[in-house]
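User: I need a structural model of Threonylcarbamoyl-AMP synthase from Candidatus Methylophosphatis roskildensis for a docking pre-check later this week. Nothing fancy, just the predicted structure tokens so I can convert them on my end. Input:
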Amino acid sequence: MTSPTSQEIAEAAALLRAGELVAFPTETVYGLGADAENPAALAKIFAAKGRPADHPLIIHLPGIEHLSRWARDIPGTALALADAFWPGPLTLILERTAIVPDAVTGGQSTVGLRVPDHPVALALLSAFGGGIAAPSANRYGRISPTTAGHVRDELGDRVSMVLDGGACEIGIESTILDLSRGSPVLLRPGAIGAERIAVVCGQAPALPASQQRQPAPRVSGSHSAHYAPTTPLRIVASDRLHDYLDAQQHAGLCCAVLARSRATPAGSPHRWRMMSSDPVGYAHDLYAVMRDFDAASVKLIVVEAPPGGEGWQAVADRLQRASAGSGMDADDDRL
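Assistant: Understood. Predicted structure tokens for Threonylcarbamoyl-AMP synthase:
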């Protein structure tokens, strides 16, 4: 795996202290980092991404021992989850302390925190010695980057330095779990699913729609349109895929196809990519494949709908938001 030198890590930490932006790898996706206590530096994140000012950021921590600096009234459940899953792809939503700038939280009383599981991210956090606020290192609403090259393509000179740690291991964003309102609520699915959370918490997390008395906190990646290519993307049920593509061919359209169980038909003009039948492998490849197809000369990206079940929940979530973000209207072909 590609790994920055200790000198490059030190340079990146110095840039963060100077209020600059540094992109770095995590096990999920590449993050666009700034000093979490510096409002001027945080403003650069929003400007570089074109991100709405009320959309919260996640703070990445060097270790669990830093949790109490950023969160207050920490429930025992949060400590148990952090002990079980940190470093790892789990973001906890907790009540913020007074040091957390409003720019991080979008003016809310809660803050999202996690310890990433990547040697480059942890080395940077250790060298910096504090919290790094970091959304995904891409323009707002678009496909998250899973390589350093993706970051450079997206942001160019808007970021002062990009630490190259190779391709991200997981490939989609962290699970977000709200613990600020008592019982755990799953706000964004990710690699750590509800069943694993339930083992630690002693109860399965609820979904936001079931929490009617108090609205869920706003969190990263929660808008209905997100993670989207610029090419329109449509999700089609497995048993309709070939008929749908035949209709596009007859209409003179060449499509890019993310298939899971359907092999390439003989003589098909469409660009075809067989994805993993395993949700972990599928998630790992998803954003890179979407980027490749987005750069191809096609009019439409067609995705064979993933199967149901908890294992596929995070993939289905990202595809639904990508479809909405690419401008496709809801219809019967959609998930």
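Before docking, keep this in mind: The CA atoms of residues 256 and 296 lie 8 Å apart.
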